[in-house]
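ingest -> validate -> predict -> emit
validate: passed (alphabet ok, no gaps, 379 aa)
predict: started
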Amino acid sequence: MTTVGVGMVGHAFMGRAHSQAWRSVGPFFGPPLTPVMTALAGRSADRVRAAADALGWASVETDWKELLRRDDVQLVDICTPGDSHAEIAVAALDAGKHVLCEKPLANSVAEAEAMAAAAERARERGIRSMVGFNYRRVPAVTLARRLVEEGRIGTVRHVRAQYLQDWLADPAAPFTWRLDRDRAGSGSLGDIGAHIIDTAQFITGQSLVGVSALMDTFVPERPLPGGGTAQVTVDDAALFIGRTDGGALASFEATRFATGRKNSLRIEVSGSSGALSFDLEALNELWFYDRAEDDATAGFRRIVVTEPVHPYAGHWWPPGHMLGYEHTFTHQMADLLTAIADGTDPRPSFADGLQVQRVLAAVADSAASRGWVDVEGSA
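emit:
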């Protein structure tokens, strides 16, 4: 097999980002499998047809189940709200389709467990699955992981992670599906908190084993676009501390009320012999501190992560020519296609997604009980 037919479900924000990635991965990365944008699925015939024409999909379906019946679709890409992830992913895997599913993996631990079990069954038949934590594929973030693995900052002692947005700071901002627990599972916690949990665990190579949390909903009711109001049933902000299985202390903040912050995923990792710092709003930069340097000149120094030796960067532009948000999705597709062709397991796996889901559940439980909660499955 030299090509893989892709069927994608959903064509809004994430659907557009994934479409761009499927279009660009071949020309820039030359993966061992060439993706064919075979079919786009959406509920409205008119909207899905318009989206397919705009985004480059060859055909459309108004029922995602039709993708599973098509011999020209070998991979299903799930870009829908969380309430449909489990149904689509389990059915696709059982039908013998590779699956890429957007984060968070599911809306509950039970759903994520069912998805991970389906992924394990499919794996035995050579069918691969991956959850879309795209920020792992920021070159600076991947470089940070390499530096930690190489021991450049020594023993990890502290992790400080934030994801700050402000798109809900205005109480008049309209109600969307992301504010409905039945559709989204949770609010800032699952939407952006999942990203900093995965990013912190990815960089450090350590997993959270326990948490203590606070959560709040600042604006409990929002206007509907067509008139009237709707109750907000998710959190607006989540704060929690935690400990990793490597003994590090960690703090996390996820909020959509950080006035003036548009999309700032910040993470700083402090070790016994150095430190690393990253901010998504300057995603081509990684800041590195080496305690071994002379005190007279020691300090954080900026690494512009655009050199050919840096992760992913050599596939794009000359050094100093910056990459952006959309490139992380292309990197994701390149890694997934390579894993499928090589017969290896792509990461993050559904098992990784399940572990993040268990952390999310522990945070929610801690906020409700106002106490320390161990993460399910941790030692």
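The first strand starts at residue 3 and ends at 9.
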